[in-house]
Amino acid sequence: MADPKPNVTIIGAGRWGTALTNLVRASHHPVQSWSRHSPQPLADVIEGATILVSAVSMKGVWPTIQQLQLLGLDPSQIIVTATKGLDPIRRQTPSQLWQQAFPHNPLVVLSGPNLSKEIEAGLPTATAVASAQREAALAVQKVFASERLRVYINTDPLGTELGGTLKNVMAIAAGVCDGLGLGTNAKAALLTRALPEMIRVGTVLGAKAETFFGLSGLGDLLATCNSPLSRNYQVGYKLGQGKSLEQIIQESEGVAEGLNTTAVLMQIAQDRHLSLPITTQVAALLQGQLSPALAVQNLMARDLTAEFNPS
Q: Is 59 a catalytic residue?
């Protein structure tokens, strides 16, 4: 007799949570979603769930963890985190927060070039699910895999998570590049230099360098930095066109996680003595310390160095 299909609960009913719910349905697995606006108690939704997927914003991760700690989880329940960001107080990734709160539960990170609007439109894509527990990664792979989504597994959850997180900073820079109309050459140069900057951060924090050449690193970088569907790209693009950050935030639908990530990343860079040229210019731009044109000028005026110089 075949094993019963796992029951999946998606926590977070925004655009990303809705897209993930639809992907699980497409693979013909039982799924239900929950948000703070749901009439059903969270305790009822997680009861009997084999896999719990957190698709909340970075701001909502810690409150969600606290709610679930009060309710209690069975150690067999697999936790999947699909949030891209850094906690501004603890300077940690979502998976680190989840693992500390629920050390006995299998933990999986889901990340890749997954623009929610394209998923909603039924367009094909691929993603990575990463875990130190192979069986947990395989279970999540089966739940999400369908004709619309090809799912790969790896054993570097931190690198998988950081790839999807750090590229949001680079997407702001890419948007500025396009907003200023700097052309394809400049954009290609920017993205090429963005990847080693992401790897520099990731390896210092404990991730594997090769993970950043995969779907959650290079794949997500290319998707997010080249699509007007990306909120982070849109922030940069509108800054490049001369709009203020306050105006852009007011006009935006949802959260551009790159804004918070940039601030936290600068704190990490200072603590770890990391050279992050692109992030530094994005941070100064977001803080209103310079114009988009001057940020580009500063990058172009940096000391000449070898292409593969580690700094």
A: no
